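re: that chain from earlier
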Amino acid sequence: MGFTGYNHTAWRAGQGAPGDIWDIQQDEAGTLWLATGSGLYTFDGQRFQRQEAGAGADAPSLNMITLFADRPGSMWIGYFHAGIGHLANGRTLKSYQRSEGVPAGVVSSFAYDNDGVLWAAVEQGLRRFRNGRWEKLPASMGVPERRGHWLLNDSRGTFWALVGQQVWYIPKGGSTFIPTGIGVAQMSTLAESPSGEIWLADRGRGTLPIADAHGMLPEAEREARRLPGIIASRMHFTADGVMWAPMRGIDGVGGAARVIFNGKTAVSVETFNVAQGLTSPAAVPVFEDREGNIWIGTNLGLSRFRAQSVRTLTEGPYDPYRIIGRNSAGDLFGYGESTVPYALQRQTLDLPRAGLQAAGLANRTPLWQFEWTNLVQRRGHELQRIAFPGAAEGLQPQALYFPSAREAWACVQGTFLSHYLDGAWRSPVDLQRNNCIALAPDGKGGLIAGFADGALALYNNGQLHALGKADGLNIGPITSILAQGDLLLVAGEKGLAIRRGANPFGEVKIDIAGALEGITGIVVDPSRQLWLNGGRGLVRLDLATAIESATHGSVVSPRLFDDVDGMPGVALQSGPLPTAQLSRDGLLWLGTNQGLAWLDTRKPNRSRAAPVTSIGNIHYGDAQEPLANGATLPAGITQLQIDFIAQSLARPERNRYRYRLSRVDADWRDAGSATTAYYTNLGPGTYTFDVIAASEDGVWGTAPTSASFTIEPLLTQTFWFRSLVAIAIILLIAAAARMRARNITALVKARYEERLQERERIARDLHDTLLQGSQGLLLRLHAISVMPALPPGAQERLESAMQAAEDSLREGRDRVTALRQEADNRADLAAALSEVFSQDTQPDDRRLRITVEGEPPRIGTDALEEIYLIGREAIRNAIEHSGASAIEVEIAYGATLRLHIRDDGQGMEPDRVREGHWGLQGMRERALRLGADLKIWSRPGLGTEVALSIPTHRLNPARATAPWWRRLPWPRS
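^ sequence. v structure.
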């Protein structure tokens, strides 16, 4: 038969699980502990691990049958024939044997009494743990020293014991056991139901209640309510009053049973055995963990039963088209191709198919339905069929919306939206776009249409407004629409987008790939939970979280309900109506490709607690070890791996993780469901590893689990070694720089000497040829000038020519002298330029004013000559061509040498300044050779200005090429 509403998962012996599981407990971290015939095991939801502390040399036996989780980190163990063990912190095992008061034989149960004293049921009766020993009970307590089977301290403080073959109890405040007169078989057990009833599982008579809050039940009632077919080895009641009873297979009755009560009456018994997937018919322990999972152990493995949130309507429509419709009163109905309605209400869930249909047909409130070519309005058994526009051409509706019993809207053909009102199809609305595939109300009396090209059309009062990619809507063909207040939620084949008011759409981002694809039903329940029926199953998101994601782009963690949670399939993708509808009684109904299903939104359907995270081993090189806080790793480690896990026993594969490593990660890394972190290129130092986990319901832990470790440095990675290397590099760079400076200095000096030698050669040639020839010519002219018979005026002209020749000869000698040796590098530039003005007789009204600022620097002969020649050309132009009456020369020395010459002459046209004659062109060429900046301004009638500027360090090549430290302004003695 199987257990209705539960998903079963089995771990079998031979596939990692132990066999012979006798008891199950859970520690404070959420880990399961298993007492088995081959030792003590733990299970974290993914891996079984044998605890060596319970199997080492100090362990009295491996065959244990009872576990009792005590204070945090403490576990009591009852052995088959080896006394009692106490495991502290999962590592230290203390054994209690005959010398500590524990007789030989089976230890079958533990319990605390109302005074906080721990009791044990052993082979020779009962024992209490006091002062580090297990004491016998005094005879005055009235219970015999015969085999103890079970202990139970109920919610009212009554302490129950199965001793010998009877049921005993001590009432609250009492000190003596009272016999009940109820006989029991060997290995019987007790359990308390949520209503406070005490149930006995007797291997001979079955299962029966023996007491309630008012005391012992009469024998007649015990016998009337006895379940003889439930031969339970243990019992457990869940909060809803259902009994879970594993059975050991005695007399062919095995497996597990689930008994459902209506009040005090058992109304349903479901069984689960090997045929349904149980690992063995011999089942003993049953345990409910903190997440609500039911665990049953057998002699061949472990089974988990997990309650499913989604339930299938097994008696619903069975054809491929399962549609959910709502009548004008708000009642929900399901139907298939036959259009016979099934009432979808909480009170009809347990009805057979005929009952569901009868309840649906009994409702005469108008219900719109559809056939592929007709619109149908149903009133109970009465049907009115209305052909769709275009039905004759075989057209079918792609989207439908029913505002009231009088009105219907349909997307059937082309760009038109068809409107049915009061018995007739009205003039269609042109949506100006093809392939309308979704319709929904806008909440303001209008409609919203979705299209296959991913666009929307808002239609209200005859006005049409389109929304598309320009508005942020880019989720593929539209599949479902929901307008609620100022929110507009739109689902497409590629995702979900949300718009608030007139703002652009934003896409919701989640950390489960594909979970928001193919959504064909959207519902928001009264608690503001968003439900989405899609191509991966049912998705739940907090609406506020979804809006935050759409607004700010944050990634959120949804809850996905799939086949493990009871979803019979995935959302229908081809119907014209939404596949998710919320009924007034809180049931969320879903249309899937495998039938109709429902979920009760009034139940939590979620875990409120985040899973507990623990850090496992750290792997480096060929070694691994548990990552203890403060661990030290060997020098040279650059790559490592860290394991972690979250203790979740429901769906550990659905846990999601984030981790970070200090000094490496600036923020959390999303690991998805991976439980290992990898790091490379690590250097020496101290690191802290943090990990945090979320359950499948998206509940994240608030505080991370952390562990720090230190990687030792190699010698070459120490501070002192690196400092010495840095100093050595600096010294090498300084030495190389000095050597290069010397080489450059020597090269410049050699080139300079070579240039001087060439200048001296040229000077000798000029002196021996041109100057000597000029001197001879001058002597001949002088001889002519003293001849007696010269024409009138010739004497004066000859003397003038001889004076010019002498000036030219003097200038040539000066140039030859300059070639032979550098002039004083502090030569007076101002005096030289003044001499240019004085060489010719000037009119009385022409004046020259020279201003000098600063101390003249050392200037190379070549540079000084070029500056002088530029200045001379400017002054001569002012004298010979401009007719200037005033010439001003400004010389400024400093970081930049500036020469500024201006006159008040007739000036020049701008074109002549740009083209220039040979004098201006020569000035520009000289400035270019110097690397100087030369500017010339002139306008007709406004005179001319010449400005020359050059950085001073370029005027002395020897200084410019010296090493930088020699160019510093060191103090001189």
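The first helix runs from residue 219 to 224.
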